[in-house]
Write a structure and sequence with these properties.
Layout: H1 2-15, H2 17-45, E1 57-66, E2 69-73, E3 76-77, H3 80-87, E4 91-106, E5 109-119, H4 123-127, E6 131-133, E7 145-149, H5 150-157, E8 170-173, E9 177-185, E10 198-201, H6 202-208, E11 218-226, H7 232-239, H8 242-246, E12 254-258, H9 259-262, H10 280-310, H11 313-321, H12 326-363, H13 374-398, H14 404-408
Parallel strand pairs: 5-10, 7-9
Antiparallel strand pairs: 1-2, 1-11, 1-12, 3-11, 4-5, 4-8, 4-11, 6-9, 7-10, 8-9
Helix pairs in contact: 1-12, 2-10, 2-12, 10-13, 12-13
């Protein structure tokens, strides 16, 4: 029976090539656009998800009161991190990240860093960044140490740097200070709000810039992890007035920003957030556009499918006169709709593969079709079933209410059977 339905469906598609081309091709283009937008939105929401205990990780921010109003800033004082760690048992880990700049030189090769960062020794374990060379447990115990990214390592030592004994090699910073290479860290993950190419220990600042460890040194991003069983709301209330307690006259309150909000919800003043982020408002526009494209594609597909079904009145009448059960008509229409939608989805995947290179070039991403993702296929199957039901149910159930004689005469739109 199912084989017969499939033969009838294929025969109808081959018999009406123009209709099949327009309907399947139009839906395929719509699905390709929707899938591209969906993959982009999904990618944006995946930032920093690889950080250990992601859901319990926060960044501390401030709301500074200035003469002309309140300003949101992402930076905090240098001494804040150790004070918080020693006074609040809810905190399991804490780390500072500061922006720095300088010219790093090895022998006759120089590199001007665009993303030099000052970090605590816990930086690697906190964010889960891997040292490809070196020991993360012993790195940054001295102020004269430096860690570089694998891209910078290739710049200094060539693409075969992994085969060379590079640990302990001397570097010059700004042609003044000598630093010792203690590690090479993996390049910044693509889905990370952080960016870095050269890392220096916080002890470097304590030795060379004492002001950095004062309460008025508002130059560092402070991240912390909270115990899973801790009350985040209560903890947030506890830290609000920390600056007032330790920095006399400082009325600036502190707040917690979830790590998952940083990439899409970071609008800070005074350039206090050094990273380049996306915006949730832009993402919502993409979502709305995707829904509109999907609705237009569905509307066109269902309209054409329904219009085509009404032209098959004689076929329906003959089948009903021959004793065809109404359930068989429903199965036939739904099966034909599912076949067309499946063909459109397959063609849409081809269009998607052609579209992604251009989208990646514009967005500076490396999005690929997640062909091995159960979530992708699961959501795709649900969407295909919904479209098939919408496209096939109306003409199928419409055939319930018309007499075989009217249908046989080609009249699919009058004389409802009482």
């Amino acid at each position: 029976m199912l084989r017969n339905y499939l033969k009838i469906a294929l025969r109808n598609l081959l018999k009406n090539k123009v209709y099949a081309f327009i309907n399947i091709g139009g839906l395929a283009l719509g699905l390709a656009c929707v899938m591209a937008i969906g993959l982009y939105v999904w990618d944006e929401y995946q930032y920093d998800r690889a950080v250990p205990q992601f859901e319990h990780t926060y960044r501390i921010t401030e709301k500074q009161k200035q003469a002309d109003g309140l300003y949101n800033v992402a930076v905090t004082p240098g001494p804040l991190a150790p004070v918080l760690k020693s006074n609040f048992p809810e905190i399991t880990q804490i780390v500072r990240v500061g922006a720095w700049y300088g010219l790093l030189q090895y022998q006759q090769t120089a590199f001007e860093s665009k993303a030099m960062r000052i970090v605590d020794p816990s930086f690697f374990s906190f964010f889960g960044f891997k040292l490809l060379v070196g020991n993360p447990k012993t790195a940054f115990q001295a102020p004269d140490e430096v860690v570089i990214s694998e891209a910078v390592a290739a710049h200094f030592f060539g693409n075969d740097w992994k085969r060379k004994p590079i640990l302990g090699q001397p570097f010059r910073l700004d042609q003044k200070l000598t630093l010792r290479l203690v590690g090479v860290v993996e390049n910044t993950p693509r889905r990370s709000h952080l960016s870095f190419d050269v890392l220096l220990p916080f002890k470097y600042l304590e030795l060379n810039d004492p002001w950095s460890n004062r309460w008025n040194s508002n130059n560092y991003h402070t991240y912390l992890k909270i115990r899973p069983d801790a009350d985040v709301s209560l903890f947030s209330q506890k830290i609000v007035g920390v600056l007032k307690k330790y920095d006399k006259g400082n009325e600036t309150p502190l707040f917690l920003q979830p790590l998952g909000d940083i990439h899409l919800h970071s609008k800070f003043d005074f350039g206090s957030d050094w990273q380049t982020h996306s915006d949730i408002a832009t993402l919502r526009i993409f979502i709305v556009v995707g829904l509109i494209v999907l609705l237009i594609a569905l509307f066109n597909f269902i309209n054409l499918a329904t219009a085509r079904a009404t032209q098959r009145a004689q076929e329906v009448g003959i089948r009903k006169s021959a004793g065809a059960m109404r359930s068989s008509l429903v199965v036939q229409f739904l099966g034909e709709a599912l076949l067309m939608v499946s063909l459109a989805f397959g063609l849409g995947l081809v269009f998607l593969e052609l579209l992604l290179p251009f989208m990646n070039e514009l967005s500076q991403k490396t999005i690929i079709t997640p062909l091995y993702s159960p979530l992708f296929w699961g959501s795709s199957v649900v969407l295909l079933i919904i479209i098939s039901l919408l496209a096939g149910l109306y003409p199928a159930f419409l055939s319930f209410f018309f007499s075989p004689c009217s249908c046989a005469k080609g009249d699919f739109g009058s004389k409802i059977k009482k």
